[in-house]
Amino acid sequence: MSALDDAQEEVxxxxxxxxDVVFLMIIFFICIDFKVxxxxxxxxxxxxxxxxxxxxxxxxQLSVKIHVEQAGTPEYKHGGANQVNPNTGRAYxxxxxxxxxxxxxxxxxLYNLADVDAELKRIATNPASxxxxxxxxxxxxxxxxxxxxxxxxxxxxAKTADACKNAGFQEINFGGGLGxx
Amino acid sequence: MDMSKLVQQNVxxxxxxxxDCVFLLMIFFVLVIDLSQKNLEDLILxxxxxxxxxxxxxxxxxxxxxxxxxxxxxxxxxxxDPKKHxxxxxxxxxxxxxxxxxxLFNKTLHLKDEKVGSKMVPLVDEPILIRAxxxxxxxxxxxxxxxxxxxxxxxxxxxxxxxEQDKExxxxxxxxxxxx
Lengths: 181, 180
Prior knowledge:
The complex is a heterodimer of chains A (181) and B (180). Chain A has a domain at 61-72 and 100-175: Nucleotidyltransferase, domain 5, CATH 3.30.420. Chain A contains 4 helices and 10 strands; from the N terminus they run ααββββββαβββαβ. Chain A has helices at 3-10, 16-34, 113-125, 154-167; strands at residues 38-44, 61-70, 73-76, 94-97, 100-105, 108-110, 130-132, 139-141, 143-148, 172-175. In chain A, the strands form 3 sheets. Chain A has a 5-stranded mixed β-sheet, covered by helices on one side. The longest helix of chain A has 19 residues, at 16-34. Chain A is elongated. The mean pLDDT of chain A is 82. Chain B has 2 domains: 3-36, no CATH class; 37-160, no CATH class. Chain B contains 5 helices and 8 strands, in the order ααββββααβββαβ. In chain B, the strands form 2 sheets. Chain B has a 5-stranded mixed β-sheet. In chain B, β2 (63-66) and β3 form a beta hairpin. Chain B is elongated. The chains are: A alpha/beta (181), B alpha/beta (180). At the A-B interface, α2, β1, β4 and α4 of A face α2, β1, β6, α5 and β8 of B. β1 of chain A pairs antiparallel with β8 (157-163) of chain B, so a sheet runs across the interface.
């Protein structure tokens, strides 16, 4: 073996650690993408239900009503209605196509979320929307109550609550008892 | 060098690849198997931009899952099936009562006296999380909230799960590099 051959052998790098590190990074980035961060909407329910006899003073609240304008059509990517996915044991999932709702912010009817957003911001910045704060003695923005009518979905309510939060409303309540479609 | 020394040298193993593989497997399973996710059903949550991140959830928080058809699932077990129970929401009430009873017994849930009007009323201090698919009819979620507010259950801190990414449309919140 010549001196030149020896030198060539010495500079040959060991690829094993690099491949290990590359595999580690691939696994890390593949797995990290699976985790979709969740957020939450805290909704504090009335504490006084059925537990006291005191008369509760009515609070001034902004009413945001959601009505169904057009019921959507369920569209299945896999399987169909009333079929169970054997892998999960749950019904196949559908997407609702063509589902449309309309809102009533106070007395004003609105037909898209951008308008709802603008109207809520207008109300939130209006000094007339401030109500007395019993806890601090000062004034605060009135709360709002989202009333979802039969046929509305969680998506509709979540988007409306998001718009309320964006406008600056801190107390978001949910009206109940409106029933199923 | 005698023969026994030569044999000893030959059987020496290089442990490096095995340790590499073990580390790879450990990292894979740590990332994939998140034990805190075992109560979560595979749902597509509605995307919300301005809500609170759920990065530090309360320990021992009960999680109620509501499927698209209104089926209520807790710890992978179905407790209310609208096809079977219809408008009889008693199973939901019983589930919440059982969660409360077991939680108080195991001391994973605690009661806290809150001033309501002129009285002190014991309420569950821990929140309860409701996870529902974006295409779940609202009245099913409303019914669970209604049951939560009953005085004998008294889960008054209800949290509704939302997502920072809509897995159906692929939309992400702007701060994560996606489009609004």
